[in-house]
Structure to design on (370 residues):
């Protein structure tokens, strides 16, 4: 076991594009944080026999907005980790934060807790684009928060950005990238905006209240991002991830390498000894005080393939054979041949990997293996 994920499903305001599981805090009871901590503790105790033996290398506090969770309750949770696992001394501990919920006092406490990596959800440095996304901060607040993180002594920072945003142009994207260049983070995660049917922004698109850039513009923006970041010394190691040398996100790498991980919190996922588990939503999670889990069975071959394909190095064919006793090229010969003919996939140095075009159309590639 390498990784521990803790989900904090709390937000000041749910963004118009967001499909992640979260609740707006104004709709919750005043004692919800304490209730949630109690549920997290009970959740952990369900795994106590395994947890005490885990050699956890990475911890990721995700959401939602983990930076909304009271810092004193975080300390209590981490103390329990140490009590239940004498070896608990992770090398990478990431906390997701939004500019509207970070203070210097919180950051100082995070450092004391052992958090050594901050992932800042900026999405854009253009105010009109942030407004279109329904974000609760503006561009200057994002810059000020980043500078505060640096001033507090954090030396490993990720910035989340989006492209294919309503009202975005090649010029506005360039302007956001120039801000990123000046801030100089160690890691940048960049995602093309995709909308699920249930989110408000999708309904606005359907109603023609707003428009999104077309596929050609989307691809042009993606190429613009890759070119800009490469020129600035960032290395792309995964579809959406760029880093300086030796600053890859080790926690996410464990996911993509199909490693073991324990997920605590509402709607969190776990993968332990080849079995996958999922926690229930907030209401059921609190009602059962974290004690109920749903077994989702074993990871499928197709999932193992497209998880591996997310990394630019791709899936090592020999390692796949040793893990599953199957020749990947034979097992999916028809699908791979079709993808090769379309210029989306290739075999290079013993690895099956996405081509440049395949990286941009990765979701279409993955569907071929389902």
């Amino acid at each position: 076991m390498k990784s521990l994920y803790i989900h904090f499903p709390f937000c000041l305001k749910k963004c118009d594009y967001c499909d992640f599981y979260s609740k707006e805090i104004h709709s919750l009871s005043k004692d919800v944080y304490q209730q949630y901590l109690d549920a997290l503790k009970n959740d952990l105790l369900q795994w106590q026999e395994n947890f005490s033996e885990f050699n956890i290398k990475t911890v990721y506090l995700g959401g939602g907005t983990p930076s909304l969770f009271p810092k004193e309750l975080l300390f209590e949770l981490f103390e329990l980790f140490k009590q239940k696992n004498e070896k608990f001394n992770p090398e990478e501990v990431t906390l997701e934060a939004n500019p509207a919920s970070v203070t210097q006092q919180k950051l100082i406490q995070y450092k004391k807790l052992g958090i050594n990596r901050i992932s800042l959800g900026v999405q854009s440095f253009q105010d009109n684009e942030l407004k279109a996304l329904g974000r609760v901060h503006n561009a200057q607040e994002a810059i000020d928060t980043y500078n505060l993180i640096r001033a507090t002594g954090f030396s490993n920072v990720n910035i989340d950005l989006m492209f294919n945003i309503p009202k975005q142009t090649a010029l506005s994207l360039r302007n956001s990238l120039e801000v990123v260049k000046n801030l100089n983070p160690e890691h940048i995660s960049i995602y093309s905006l995709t909308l699920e049917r249930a989110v408000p922004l999708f309904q606005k698109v359907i109603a023609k209240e707003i428009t999104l850039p077309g596929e050609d513009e989307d691809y042009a923006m993606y190429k613009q991002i890759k070119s800009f970041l490469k020129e600035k010394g960032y290395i792309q190691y995964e579809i959406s991830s760029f880093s300086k040398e030796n600053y890859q996100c080790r926690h996410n790498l464990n996911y993509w390498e199909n490693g073991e991980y324990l997920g605590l919190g509402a709607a969190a996922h776990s993968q332990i000894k080849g079995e996958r588990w999922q926690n229930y939503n907030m209401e059921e999670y609190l009602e059962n005080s974290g004690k109920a889990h749903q077994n989702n069975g074993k990871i499928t071959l197709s999932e193992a393939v497209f998880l591996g394909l997310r990394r630019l190095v791709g899936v090592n064919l020999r390692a796949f054979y040793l893990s599953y006793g199957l020749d990947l090229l034979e097992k999916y010969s028809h699908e791979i041949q079709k993808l090769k003919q379309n210029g989306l996939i290739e075999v290079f140095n013993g690895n099956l990997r996405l081509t440049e075009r395949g990286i941009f159309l990765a979701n279409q590639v993955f569907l071929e293996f389902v």
Remarks:
- Residues 195 and 202 are 6 Å apart (CA to CA).
- The chain has two domains: 3-255, 315-370.
